[in-house]
Each structure stands twice: as structure tokens, then as C-alpha cells.
Fold this sequence. Notes:
Rossmann fold, alpha/beta
Amino acid sequence: xxxxxxxxxxxxxxxxxxxxxxxxATFSELLARRGVPVVVVTAHADARADEHTNxxxxxxxxxxxxDRWAGPHASITTKEMQDLWxxxxxHSVFSRQVAxxxxxxxxxxxxxxxxxxxxxxxxxxxxGDRADPKWAADVRVITHVHSPSAWIERLNRRLEQSKTMHxxxxxxxxxxxxxxxxxxxxxxxxxxxxxxxxxRADVIRYPFELLxxxxxxxxxxxxxxxxEFRKGIDTLLRAWPRVETDTRLRIVGADVVDYRTNQSVxxxxxxxxxxxxxxxxxPPDRIAELQRDASVVVVPSPDDNFPFTCIExxxxxxxxVAANAGGAAEMIExxxxxxxxxxxxxxxxxxxxxxxxxxGPDERAAMGxxxxxxxxxxCDPQCVLxxxxxxxxxxxxxxxxxxxxxxxxxxxxxQPLATTSAPREPLWRRAARRLLGG
Length: 438
């Protein structure tokens, strides 16, 4: 491939946030080790900072004024950026910043590939500016689909979505359909994209290096993830009293508010439960320590793309209990490299957890070893890198396969194609007018 690989992600260590940040850090460092020039564009709550770490150039753009996202950074003063923040939100400001950075990415780094996640649509403005002949033909734009907002909102049972959320979903869809290539780590998400957005995606797993072997832990059951419905936390906490064990359940992750009750999820579900330890948000090294100590890692999400919690636990040789859906069901061979239960089945989860905790040392060790071998095969870094490099080397194929199903996007208004050479109103301004009713 020609040129540097640019990864655009608001999530990046030390502010990794979750799986998207973990992927961005892992993939960028693996590319650098192979000798591919890599630049990461990310955001933070401080002035612009340029770094070079582990062979990766990092540009941190100023975005929010603090970690509470109360307003834009003090350096964001133009009317366009202020309007974007107050109408379409911070994600659109970051997207505009990325588009404005393209000339520097070309001149300073010789970028040939720009990859952005779907979540937050960080490449939406860039693709809107793509009529510029100075770079359009020389740069391959890739959307890596991790967690579309439309998919997240459905799994979180959020029925009353804001206009801003509808516009974000529209932007994510438009970015994905406007890309030169689309990649996603699971066949489940591949099928969702084909049906909902009419998009063809290449299925390439996340790269992941196996962790050092460690003996099976004795620290009970571990859950890692945001305390929200899409992570299956409600199924887990309702199942837990039925698990026949004296061991403890440790829960790691940020609590969230259920918009229907204005209660945190933990308040609504933890009342009266015994043997549960709520640990809140923890740094990655502490989470890794808890994983090594755990007897069982539970991943109860009713539909997750390719959860890093599952990857990391299997790579560490832990017994994993997961819902038979999404990427976890593609990773785990039931009864061999882990245990599966049907999504939302509280009794099924309780029975499966009881079975996992009743395992003897030899059976637990054998399942943990099978899990390591399975994830080592699926996520082998060199194989994944070969597939990703081949994806950008081969001639681009059409991404759009059908109009898709826009039923989840009731505010999506089809824009007629321009029939004259008159300049068109910027995409962001049209979206802002829809939100403001203008």
C-alpha cells in the first residue's frame, strides 16, 4: 500500500472509553510494528497536542471544555463550529475538525488511507468535502463499523429519541454508505448493515495478541461493561439470585440513568441483591488483574458486535459464559471454548453460570486453553493485518447494495441530486435547519 494509514477515533488511550479505543490503540501499534506509517487523530479537553508514541504519530485535537462535555473548548470560537456544537453536538464539531485537517495529513504524513469508526460519524464532513480533486482520488476512505447509534438505541430500548440522535444516526449511515470500503468484525453486524443500511461490509476480526498464560482464578464471576440494557446487565442481575453458589459477582463499568425512571440502572436492579460487588469504572490494568483472578467472565449482552470483554477473557484462558448472539456466539464453541445461553433467558443464564462454577480444575483449565486457542486463531494479529492491507490494495468494489431499510430513521429526508452547477448548501447547515425547524 502507498502512504500512511490514518485512524480517526475520539476514543484513544488514555481516554479509551471502551472497545473502540482498545481497537484503535491495538491496530495502530500493530501497523507501526509492521513498518506502516500511522497517524491517529483523536480528541481531548486540552489544547492541540502532537505526540509520537510506540511508532505512532498522534494528533489530539481540542474538543470539549472539560470531561463533563458542558461546552466546546475555549479555542473553538468560529460561528460555524459554535453552531455545529449547539445543533448537531460535539461529534459533528470533531468531524469538521477532521475534515479541516486533511491538507495537513496529506502534506505532513502522506496519508493514503483514512479509517474512521461509524460511531459519531467522524468522517462525515470529510466525505462531504470530497469533491476537492486535490486528494479525493488518492485517498481510500474506510468506515469501520463498531456500534451504530441506531443499533445501540434499539438494544437500550430507547423509544423517544431526540432530533439530534436521529441526525446522528443519519450521519453515521451516510458516512458508511459514502465510504470506499466498509469493514466490521462480525457476521452479525455484516447482516445488520446489509439489511438496514444496504451496505456490503468485509468481515475482518479485531486483531489481538494472546495474554500470558495464568492459572484459573478463584475470584468468582466478573462482568465488565457499561451498566446498560444492551450489555445485558438486567438479565444478569435478575438471574444472579438463582445461581447456586456462595461466590461473589463483581461488576466493573460506568453506571447509566434509565431515562424512563430517572434512576440509575444499579439503583433499579441491585436492590436487595446479595453477593454483588459494584466496583465502578476502573483503569485497564486493574480490569486485567480482575480478569486473571476471575473464575468465570460473563458477557450477557443480547447482541454485541465483537465484544473485547469476551476477546480478552478468552485470550487470558478464562471460562466465558455469553449470550448466544452477536460476535460472542461467533467466538465461542459451546461446551468446548466457553458456554452459551439464549439471550434474555434469566433461568438459562443462572443454570449456565451454576454449571461453570461447578467445574473441576481440570475441566476449567481445558476450557480455558481451548478458549485461548480459539481466539488466537480468530484474532491472530498477522492474519488480520494481512487481510486489512489486502482490503486497501485491491480495487474498490461498490459499497452500496440497496437503499436499505430507513424505518429506524424517521427524520431521514432524501435530498434530490443537484441538476445545476450552482453550489449546494453544506450538509451540516441542512441538518441544522431540520433540527431548528428552519
